[in-house]
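Q: Structure tokens for this one, please.
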Amino acid sequence: MKARGRSTRARGQGLVEFALVFPVIVLLLVAVFDIGRAVYAYNSVTNAARQGARVAAVNQLYPADSVTVCNESMPVEDTAVGTTPTWSARACAASAAVSLGVQPSQVALGYAPPAGVTLDCPAGPAPSAATPFHVGCIVSVTVTYRWSAITPIIGGLMGPITMSSTAQMPVERVFP
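A: Here is the predicted structure, written as tokens:
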């Protein structure tokens, strides 16, 4: 009978150990899930900035408020109607991160001369005949996204994180 009592206590000890370790294991699994989401969000924000910079390098309609689409099945400009742009750098950046819900208002555009070079690169809203763009000006696109953990436990520990990525490319041609 003594042997039977020891086996019952051993089973009880295993249950207590499991009860102590189980919350830690669940917390680690949830943390891995949320860290995976954060890595995915950062990669999406980085790719969105790169996509926006690529479009802005060939289409300098800044800030492109008149064009709010990014239809990649169409050319950058519609030559059938003149030189009307069909893509927007902000819209293309936002569509590259559509799974995150990034809006065009979260995309910032800027133009500046390369370091050590004297070029007239307009920093203002829209280029004009007085301040045109020049090939070689550097376009800078910054996409900002506020990430928060989906699980309350990790969200309470970490809080929301602001992710931001900037991509720069030289202007390849002057539009229009």
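A few notes: The first strand starts at residue 77 and ends at 78. Residues 2-170 form one domain.
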